[in-house]
Design brief:
Helix content is about 50%, strand content about 20%. The chain is of the alpha+beta class and about 90 residues long. It has one domain. The chain has a three-stranded antiparallel sheet with strand order 1-2-3. The longest helix is centred in the N-terminal third of the chain and has 20 residues, at about 5-20. The termini are close together.
């Protein structure tokens, strides 16, 4: 994950933590650790939508893999992170 993506994750997680404190009905709930928050955003679309953080990972298709192979790169996944209408893509 690159620095820009990490900044988006950090901002979304900070908003999540701040909102938990503001919402009295959520005070009794335990705050999710960052890694659980990220995984839940990846797997639960309703949760992801609520906190404004969309994380998608997908395997590269054959054409993309061929291009990276020609460039001597070993990427196999595309990671896309979107928060507040800002989208950042990276390869892994």
């Amino acid at each position: 994950m690159n620095n820009e993506q990490q900044e988006l994750l950090d901002e979304a997680y900070k908003n999540y933590c701040t909102q938990l404190v503001k919402d009295s009905f959520l005070l009794s709930r335990n705050r999710l650790p960052l890694d659980v928050f990220i995984n839940k955003c990846k797997t639960d679309s309703e949760f992801s939508e609520k906190w404004g953080l969309k994380i998608e990972e997908r395997e590269l298709n054959d054409d993309e893999l061929n291009i990276f192979n020609l460039l001597k790169q070993t990427f196999t996944k595309l990671i896309t992170i979107t928060h507040k209408d800002k989208t950042i893509e990276s390869y892994k």
